[in-house]
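_Full entry_
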Amino acid sequence: MEVVFRTRQLPYFYSISDIMKTIYTIVLVFLVLSLTGQNKQDYYWPFGLDLDSEPGVQAIEIDFNTKPLRAGVRQGGLMFDQMNASICDKEGNLLFYTNGCAVANRFHEQMPNGDSINPGFFFDEWWFADCDFGYPGSQDIMILSDPANSLGYYMLHKPTNYHPDSTSLFSIDSLNYSYVDMTLDNGKGDLILKNQNFFKGDLLFKYLTAINHSNGTDWLVLNPMRAGGYATFLIDEEGIQDIGIQRTDVTFHWNASSAGFARFSPDGTKYAQYNDMDGLHLFDFDRETGELSKLQFLPLATEDSPFATLEWSASSQFLYLMTSDTIWQLDSKAEPLESGLEFIQERDPDSEGGFFQHATLGPDCRIYIRANSSKRFFHVIHKPDEQGLACDFQHDAMSLPYSTSAG
């Protein structure tokens, strides 16, 4: 296979004790292929740990083919720290998934060549060369179908690098890809390329996101740079193409990598980036050229919450902004933008937990919100396209069979 190119500071400064604390932190990081509604590539969500030493802590799966929907126990397979991406075929059958340092097939077996993703000094020395809990980093990995091959898939991922002589000990200064060929291993798939670098530059942790090109086949990929601007890429039949860095008026908080997310609207016309230090940056987006324009800023930033995330409603009208203890709804069509902001919910101290740092629009058009670690529920926004409190947010709405972590 020929790929043509035309042209991990950690989420915050980790000490050894910080890293050990994150071992059990489980974060759903799933690619929701919103613009390919005719298929079911986002129907299977694997997550969680399976610890023999910790009774009641088992790996979990959510399969949207299951009616009524429920979370079930996953037998075997990979375990997760934070990095997590999965892909199904167009009928919703699992193909494979990854925890950032290994790749497993639909039978939850590691692919023959599915080890040693994101290798290097950080993994060997700081992560103790241990893939049992996966690789750290949320919204730092994704799986995209190859426009040139219906049975081929790109995994884009960002390795963390360690710089002992720098004031910033950890950084992400490269974007890599690995490639899965589903014709191999009797149709179970295997990797034919691993850890291939296609970009060098000082990137923010998190915020790696993609959207289908306007032609419905190719992909546009964005990741913000630490010094400002957005690295932009096109994946088409010729491979991965570096479009360049888009310079904008956005400057990022020095700790912007600590928590936050970026999302394209399902219709691909908007790009939103949010964290609790910088607030919300909302752009118009051109799905043909990959160009960002018409920046709108909403200073919904308090610096009081260590986590923040966002997610769109299926219609692309409403954007939900969440910190650890609050949820807001924003009507993206409102003028001025701040007039469309409405408070939805404060954390209930009697519930199973806060709103943590991840929310995902499911194929059923509900938004599933990850609670704190060691919890057995997801919060759910049942009707994200209804305005205000009619969106029907519910604490602890989806029960999990086991706690998702033990930390």
About this structure: DSSP finds two helices and 27 strands in the chain. The longest strand covers residues 190-203. The helical segments are 16-22, 121-126.
